[in-house]
Amino acid sequence: MAGNETFEKLGAIGTLANLLIYLTTVFNLKSITAATMINIFNGTTNFGTLVGAFLCDTYFGRYKTLGFATAASFLGLQAIQLTAAIPELHPHRCAAKESGECEGPTAGQLAFLLMGLGLMIVGAGGVRPCNLAFGVDQFNPKTEAGKRGIDSFFNWYFFTFTFAQMVSLTLIVYIQSNVSWAIGLGIPATLMFIACVVYFVGSKIYVKVKATGSPMTSVAQVIVVAIKKRKLKPVEQPWLSLFKYIPPNSINSKLPYTDQFRFLDKAAIVTPQDEIKGDGSPADPWRLCSLQQVEEVKCLFRVLPIWASQIMYCVTLVQLHTYAVFQAVQSDRRLGNSNFKIPAASYVVFMMLSLTIFIPVYDRAVVPFLRKIRGKEGGITILQRIGIGMFVSIFTMLVSGMVEQHRRSIALTKPTLGVVPRKGAISSMSASILIPQFILGGLTEAFASIGLIEFYYKQFPENMKSIGGSLFYCGLAGSNYFSSLLIFIIHRTTNRTATGNWLEEDLNKGRLDYYYYIIAGLGILNLGYFLLCASWYKYKGNSDNTPELELHVNGEKQQSDKP
């Protein structure tokens, strides 16, 4: 299973890592157009996971969904490879000059490229929400070994994912940028084909959980019945008085009563008009719901405010994959005194490298140490881990702004190293100075991104695991769309000011550092919002009223005892 996932990541990421450069150099798109296109593509890809998760949980199951999605990803990658291999499928190469208009893609060329990207969206829509859940299905959560295996699986899943990204951002990106786009794009397609073969060869050894029907039907029933019964008075001792029933074939764990979102409790109030069958189930599930159903919907509602904070947090990650690459393009990328230049997109590998190094250290050293001190299974709570990551993301943007300010100052005051076609002068600042912001980005992901995925998986009912997995990618989608909106607003607003456009094609004429500082400011506001949500949050299966974070009440420190 792990080997299959590695091939999938190598195949999928190999194209996406350098897609921004591909669009600007081969398809002759402007930087702001390419960045917006990448954001929209990533946003659509990530939102597609919600559809894939619904189809998986409702009709096909994870095994069939993953098989179909992997094949679609292969076809999409192959189509994109053909746009580079066949001259008629891309515009003529732009002349190497500082400014001037270049021939853009024709409608047919753009349509073929979009077809390939569309197939990749279909593939990602099935792979992303199901891959992690399918991997966890291979563990038995009822045993101690299974529980610990699941906890480590989240960390090592990201380790494998990041290893694949590192290979893509070094070897594959180098071939794409310096040898041949056709060969470089053919490698991911080949690897994805291998992923398809490996996946189906291992079919007989997988644990395959069948689809149990749409979990969203139960969610809709609770909401509809709660609205119908909104005029009823709340019952006393609801944990005793509300209607209780759990279907014998349910895979969900029994949940205790919680006193949040109490308006939903009315869906489980039994009235004289409600009929109950001999087996204890309601005769009409659209008139009466069980306490178990209500608590499952509460789990979903409690997660949504935390999910909203992810959207702003992930904007930082979006910049490290777009504008930080443009920073590298206009920096000195020579390796030592040689003429070898590190591809601009390859600098993202330092983010992956810091994540790859930190994950084993965190899993094998930091967690056991904190477990002994605090007595918690994970060392710290999931929300505390996410909060640390969000704090580091703010620091990441501040460092990025200061580095860009330094890069631009050197480009304007000291001799430059040539000109990038259609962009501007290359600053003599070494691109290695960009490495700290990428390292911080990796640490941000190690805490917040992994924490968010683990949070969604553990806090959703068992029959909604795929939807829980898709929620992380929907947050990434929101970040991509929000980033595009932010770029549009700043581009339109600053274009009319005396200081000029902050997001100029030539970064030396713009003020990208100001853009980074704005994101850092929004991140501070978002962290405050997250801390409020975390202090209110109650973990699934915990019915006490103790806040999750440490609070200070009457001047004395009160520590939460939540798991």
Automatic annotation (TrEMBL):
It is found in: Membrane. It is a multi-pass membrane protein. The chain crosses the membrane at residues 12-29, 156-175, 181-201, 300-324, 344-362, 382-403, 438-457, 469-494, 514-537. Its main location: membrane. InterPro entries: MFS_trans_sf (IPR036259), POT_fam (IPR000109). One of its GO terms (cellular component) is membrane. Belongs to the major facilitator superfamily. Proton-dependent oligopeptide transporter (POT/PTR) (TC 2.A.17) family. This is Major facilitator superfamily (MFS) profile domain-containing protein.
